[in-house]
Fold these 2 entries.
Entry 1:
Amino acid sequence: MSEVSARLDLPLIQPSQAQKHVTHNEALQMLDGLVQAVLEETGANTPPFEPVTGQLFALGANPSGDWAGQAGRLALRIADAWLFIAPQDGWRAWDKASAQYKVWQGGSWAEIVPDLANLAGVGVGTGWDATNRLAVAAEASLFTHAGAGHQMKVNKGAAGDTASVLFQSNWTGHAEMGLAGDTVFSIKVSADGSAWHEALRADAAAQSLTIPFQVDGTAVQQGRGDTTPGRLMRADYGYGPGNLLGTVGQSGGVPTGAVIERGTGVNGDYVRFADGTQICTHVLDIPATNTAQGAMYVSASDAVWTFPTAFAAAPCVSGVPAGAMATAAFLTAPATAPGDPATGYRCRACATASDTTARSYSLLAVGRWF
C-alpha cells in the first residue's frame, strides 16, 4: 500500500500504524495550506524572522537558512517547523505580494492571464451595454505606438452606413466627423442634437473641399473692408489668381469684382483697376498744323477721340507725337463734340512752323471709372 496519496502526496495511515493521529494531522495541515492557497510571497529566498503558523511561501532559486536546499518548493509553516511541498503543474494560488493569481507551470509560478478574445463587452470604470460594448470612464484614454506608429480604425459595413466620431455634451450630440451615409469625409454640427448642418465636406472622388454653409465668426473677415490682422480672408471678399484679372465691379465704392480689367477696340485700349482708376490709350491721326494762329500753326480741324470705355468724369488727357516732331505740341478741347467729356475729347495739334502732313499722336487719358 502506498504511503502517500496519488495527487497531493498526503501521508496515508498504514495498517497497524502506531500514533495514527500524527499521520492524519499532517495530511490535514497540508490540505489546510494547499486548498484555497494564499502565498505570502513568490520567489522567496529568506525565511521570515518570526514565521506564523499557516503561512505559505513559494520558494525561489536560492533559498537560505531553514529553507536551504528546497528551491522551487512550497514552504508551509506548521507548529514549530516548515513543511516543504513540491508543487505540481496546474496548482493555483493567490499571491498577496503582487495581488495576482499565479499558476505553477513548467517549473515556475506565472500570472494567470484570462482569455480576452471574443468577450461580450468590457467596461473600464463604468458598465458596458449591448450598444456600447466597450465603455471607458476616465480623464483620458491613451493609444500609443508599438513600433513605428499607431493607427485607430473605424470601419463600416457598406457605403450607406456610418463610421464616425461623435462629440457630445451631457449626452447631447453637437459635432460629428467621419463617413456618414456615404464615403465622403464630412464634419457636421448641431445646436440641439437633432438638427444637423454639414460644416465641411472633403470629396476624394471630386478632389474638392467645400464649406456648405455660411462661415461666420471673428476668425474670418466680417466684410469686404475688414482688414483686421490674423483673420481668414473669405473667397467672396478677397483676391487671388482666380479673380486677379476679370471684370471689375463696385457697390457703394467697395470693389466687388476682379482686381484688373483689360479691354481693346477700334478706339484704343483701356485698363480698369478695382480702386476706381482707369487708363485709356490710343494712337490717333490729327490733321496737319498748317493754319496760322498768331505766331503758331494749328490743325485746321479737330480729330475726335471717343474713349474705348467711358469715364465717370472728364479725365486728364495728354498726347505726344508718335514720330519725330520736336516742335509739335498737343491741344485738347473737351467742352464740345463729341459732347460728353467723360466719353471722348476733341484733339488738335500746334507747331511753330507750318506742316501740311497729318501726324499720328499717342494719346493717354487717366481718370476714374467710378
Entry 2:
Amino acid sequence: MKDKKLNFKLQPSSYQELWSLDTNVVFLNHGSYGACPKAVLAVQQNLRSQLEQDPVNFFGKKWEPLLDNARSKLAAFINTDAQDLVFVPNATTGVNSVLRSLTFSSDDEILTTNHEYNACRNALNFIANCTGARIVVAKIPFPLESPQQIIAAVLEKVSSKTRLALLDHITSQTGLIFPIHQLVKELQARGIETLIDGAHALGMIPLNMQEIGATYYSGNCHKWLSAPKGAAFLYVRRDKQPEIHPLTISHGANSLRTDKTRFQLEFDWTGTDDSTAYMCVPEAIAFMSSLLPGGWLELMQRNHQLVLQARQLLCTALQVQPPCPEQMIGSMAVVPMPVSLENRGYMWLHDELYDQFGIQVQVVPWQESPGMLIRISAQIYNTLEQYQFLAKALKSLLKTKDK
C-alpha cells in the first residue's frame, strides 16, 4: 500500500499470503475477531461439504467423533481433562451459561472490576436485576505500575457476602494480563468461586487450566488460536458440572446415555447447528504451531516482542508514557491518545485512520483519563513497518487537528 499523503510504502509480510486479509488494508486488529488462515478455512469447507452431502449421515455418524477429537486436542493444549470441557460459540456465551445456571439471592455479592468486558458486565447486570444480588466493582487504576495493584484492588472489595468473582484474564479495553493465578488462589482461600473471562488468552499466552485452578473458565478459539469464527470453550471444575447448563436446553437433558456426563451431553447438542468451527480447532493448533521452528512458544514470544516495539514506537511518536509494565502485555497493547485527539471522539479517529490511510486498528473509549486509547495487536503477519505507518498517520491527524 502507498498513501499519497504520507508517501510511505509498505512491504507485505511473507506470512500475510497465508490469510485472506485484504492486502489494501493495514490490519492491526487481530484481537477483536481474530483472522482464520486459509488452510484452516479449507478444512472447514471440506467438513461443510461432507455435512451437506448427507446431513443425516454426518450428524449421525461423523459429528460426535469429530467433536470429541477436537475437544481432546484442545484439552491437551491447555492441560486439562477433556471431560471438563465443552464447546460454545464464543466466550460471552460461556460466561452467560455459568451466570444463568447459578442461583443467587439478595444477600449475595458478585465481584468484578471496572475493566470487565461490556457484554459480560451486561450479563452481570441482568442477573442482578433478576435475583437482587449486588454487583461490587473493584476499581483497577489505569495507567498502573504493578500487577499487585490489581490484586490489592480486588481483595479490598471482598466481603463475607462475596459469592463469585468474574474477572478478565486479559482485558479487552486495556490489554492487561491480570495476575489470574494469584487472584484465583487468594479468592479461593477466602471461599470465593471464580469465573474467568479468557476471551483473549488462548493462543496469546500459554494457558494451563490445572495451574490456574479457576472454578469456571470461558475462552475463545477464534481469536489468537485462529480457528474459524464461532469456536470457543467452557471449562467447569468437575464438582460444579452438575449445576451448569447451556442457555438452550435440548435432548441432552434427559438422555439415557451413561458414557458421557450430563454436562457434556447437554452442551454438545443444543439443536441443529454448524459445528465445523469446533472441529477445526485441531487444525488451527497444528497450523499456527508450524509457522515457526519453536512452535507456539516462539510464535507467542515473537508477537509479544513485536507489540512491545510497536507500543514504544507509538509512545515516542505521540510523546506519551507507556501505561503499564511490559510483563503485563501479551500480543495486544494500548497507547493513550493525546488530548487534542480525544476531544474528537473514538469513532472519528477510527474512521479517519481507516478512510484516509487504510489502517484497521481498535480505538477504545476509556471512562477516565486518558479518555481514549488506541489498541494495537501483533500477529505473525504484522510487521514493524505497519506500526511506523500508523505512527505517521496519527501524527498527521494531530497536525490536521491543530490547524
